[in-house]
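Table 4 source record.
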Amino acid sequence: MPVTVVRLNLVDPAATSGSLSARYRAAVEMAAYADEQGVDTVQTEEHHGSADGWLPAPLVFAGAVLGATRRITVTVSALITPLYDPLRLAEDIAVLDLVSGGRLVTVAGIGYRPEEYAAHGRDWAGRGALQDEALETLLAAWTGEPFRHRGRTVRVTPRPATRPHPPLLVGGSSRPAARRAARLGLPFFPSAHLPELEEYYHARRAEYGTEGWCLMPPESTPLLHVAEDPDRVWAEYGHHLLHEARTYASWQPEGVRSAVRSRAADAAALRAEGVYRVLTPGECLAYAAEDGGRTSLVLHPLCGGMPVEEAWRSLRLFAERVLPRLEDSGRGSSPVRGAGGGGI
């Protein structure tokens, strides 16, 4: 059955400090409401230096959501791990794992924007080595035992609650990403439907003698908005959906593959393309039943600066008219399935 996701990245190209503060508070309230209604996961992501305020601190936001909820999983898809001090990152994730009871899932991405590395004083050309160090440090740190790090012996405490370590996947659309996941015995999360990359991952895993699994996105993972009148939403708010689609596409160089990449130049083309969809509750249920119900429903209520009141309308319609009609058995089988987004 479908996994249900509420995606929140806090973009708002026309934000003031006051309106952005209200948007952040609304996002946490939406996450709490989604938790109460039985949504499987909140998904967030990471980008830096964006003029529209694209969320730069997903672990801080995840902490706020985890503190406001009791059941729902929070997936960071993706965290740009080479931008972090790996020891501090191990501590932060361990604390979030403890406070949430293991409800934080981290997809470790390498990123695709050189300017984000430059802003953080990181070497873009050496990003592969930085990613290796970050992941190896996390796995060693979470054992709670002393280990060697940059020429000295260190120990990270507290140890996380989840054994053997908090949920950690390697994201990406390249062979080096798949090979890295296989070598470390970590699950692999391709950023798009890439069966050939899954095959490569399992072949390398067999060579390394490691355990692991691949979380393959479906061929189509549209970002959804639910409305009684889709024509009204496209007419009044289609520019918000287009803003995110065009911004995201402008960041991605050729060769980077994503489940939610759009090539649309205007709202009409975006609607026809189908990457972003505005559906009635009935249409949403029909979509959920496609492919034997193995799809994901990724609701994106605040997309591209969508007004908070319209975002609430979409979320409530989803909770009141869609969720009750989805069969409970089997739903929520994976906390990160369907979570497309930045940073991988």
